[in-house]
Specification:
single chain, alpha+beta, MetI-like fold, 3 domains, 6-stranded antiparallel β-sheet, 5-stranded antiparallel β-sheet, 59% helix, flat
Length: 549
């Protein structure tokens, strides 16, 4: 028997279908967004073919351009003519190509738009070379020879010799970085500790004499390392690659400035896959360079994960304790009602307000007081009286603690009253009942609150800009120097890195694919943290459900 329309609506079937459709549409939009971000970001690391273009100029001359075709668009003829391009009078629209020409130290621009009507010849020369440099971006050209200390290097196979000397240069750079960051950095750290010790014991001649002897020994080590560093740099700068650009300009590129060099038009598919894997690994394990438009984002990954961990350690206990008080101990009344309203309202406060509060209270008031009490010998240089990892974590803990409170309280509410009464009837105190019976059963709800807190905190940027995050951190907050975890240090964050590269970069076209790649990486990290917490929650839920049966 068929239902009429009012009966069908009253049965609730339409709302089930509407709900299912809304959920399906949301999933399609989420996965579509991830596919869009991934396609635009991950494609950046694939080695593209290098094209050699011959262009006709307005004066009848010919120009040659070498680079990668990275994008194309169809635009009105007027836009091309305004840019000085050549377009026939009978055309209304024209396709133009965005060419990554590199060689910024020669031309001043990394990218160039070229209309298809200007191109008279297009080919892909097999000997075209791409050199990724630590400065000035990519170089596109043709290798000619090698020089060592201004003397030509005689070799049967130029490219094999280039690869061999690039490997040697990479070894030199690694040794130089080891000396600069660890050995010399460790000596500077010890010298600074001696200076502070001398200020503390300024009236103790014996202590000053011991410090002076230690300082002299450290200075000797420092001088030896400085000399070794200068020798390594001199050795690393003696090799140069002689190449010429598409217009014939000769360039002498020190191998010390070349991160890698390759000939993409000669690479096989497997060589491109290997290159892609190396570039992807570099992106996740290396430091940024070239105003964050090249290199990797490892410091930002490390800072994001460490900040979330510290925030979770702070926010979870406070949120759980507050929820226990509100649910188990607080008596119903206007005060308790006001606290609940305040907790709910705090969850809706804009995050930038928390940043302003954190900057004023944590950095200026609390951090300044800590410096006066515990680090007075370092003043006027601040230790905790400046933005850092600790204040960023505490600010985000305040931001997320209402979420933990609400989730934990909901979990406590769902525990049957009979379980509490049964525990009390067996002679357990209220505290023992809470600690041994109620809290273990509410653990899944606590984990839910933590999952929601991590999901929100990991993507926040506005408050962090005031309380600790920076464009480029000189050192990680975790190292081998005592006390190993330096909560006073500034740090990098993936969310801020996306903002900086996308909106503050001097090279917008070069930064665009890295914005997509970094955004995808941030999503993956948040999902990984959430999945780990969800897995723990599910195990706890299974454990206590089994115990109930």
């Amino acid at each position: 028997m068929r239902q009429n329309f009012p009966q069908w609506v009253a049965s609730g079937t339409p709302w089930v279908w509407l709900t299912a459709g809304a959920v399906s549409l949301s999933l399609v939009m989420v996965f579509g967004l991830l596919i869009l971000v991934g396609a635009n970001g991950l494609a950046h690391f694939w080695p593209g073919r290098v094209a050699a273009l011959e262009l006709r100029l307005v004066d009848g001359g010919v120009a040659r351009v070498l680079g990668e075709i990275v994008d194309e668009e169809t635009v009105a003829v007027a836009r091309v003519r305004d840019a000085g391009g050549i377009v026939p009078d009978d055309m209304l629209v024209v396709t133009r190509y965005l060419i990554k020409v590199g060689n910024r130290d020669f031309s001043g621009n990394d990218f160039r738009w070229i209309a298809e009507t200007e191109i008279t010849k297009l080919e892909y020369p097999s000997d075209a070379v791409v050199a990724e440099r630590s400065e000035w971006g990519n170089f596109y050209g043709f290798a000619q020879s090698l020089r060592e200390a201004d003397d030509p290097v005689v070799t049967e196979n130029l490219w094999d010799a280039v690869a061999e000397r690039l490997a040697r240069s990479a070894a030199f750079r690694a040794e130089i970085a080891q000396i600069e960051r660890h050995e010399i950095g460790g000596i500077n750290y010890q010298i600074e500790r001696l200076r502070l010790r001398e200020r503390e014991r300024a009236n103790d001649p014996a202590a000053l004499a011991t410090a002076a002897a230690s300082r002299a020994d450290l200075q000797t080590q420092f001088s030896a390392l400085t000399k070794k560093l200068a020798d390594l740099r001199k050795q690393n700068q003696r090799d140069k690659l002689i190449a010429h650009t598409s217009d014939g300009t000769e360039a002498a590129i020190p191998l010390s400035s070349i991160v890698r060099a390759f000939r993409p038009n000669q690479m096989s598919w497997w060589q491109k896959v290997r290159h892609y894997g190396i570039k992807l690994a570099e992106f996740t394990t290396d430091e940024p360079r070239e105003a964050n438009t090249e290199g990797g984002v490892f410091p930002a990954i490390f800072g994001t994960v460490l900040m979330v961990i510290v925030m979770s350690i702070v926010a979870t206990p406070f949120g759980v304790v507050a929820a226990i008080y509100l649910r188990e101990y607080a008596r119903p009344g206007p005060v308790t009602a006001a606290i609940r309203i305040a907790v709910n309202n705090l969850a809706g406060v804009p995050s930038v307000v928390y940043g302003v509060f954190g900057f004023g209270f944590f950095v200026y008031f609390l951090g300044g007081s800590i410096d006066q009490i515990f680090f007075s010998n370092k003043l006027p240089a601040p230790t905790f009286g400046t933005p850092g990892l600790l204040w960023s974590s505490l600010t985000l803990a305040l931001l997320t603690v209402p979420v933990v409170i609400v989730a934990t309280e909901e979990g406590l509410t769902r525990i049957p009253r009979a379980i509490r009464e049964g525990s009390l009837a067996l002679g357990a105190t209220k505290a023992e009942t809470l600690w041994r019976t109620v809290l273990p059963m509410a653990t899944p709800a606590m984990m839910t609150g933590l999952i929601l807190a991590v999901a929100r905190a990991a993507g926040e940027v506005a408050p962090l800009m005031m309380v600790g995050v920076v464009k480029l951190a000189p050192s990680l907050p975790l190292d081998t120097d005592f006390p190993f975890l330096h909560l006073d240090r500034k740090f990098m964050h993936l969310g801020f890195h996306i903002y900086d590269v996308g909106f503050q970069s001097p090279n917008v076209e070069a930064a665009r694919p890295l914005v997509y790649a970094t955004a995808l990486l941030l999503v993956v990290i948040i999902m990984s943290l959430n999945l780990a917490a969800i897995q723990i929650r599910n195990r706890l839920r299974e454990k206590y459900n089994a115990a109930d049966h």
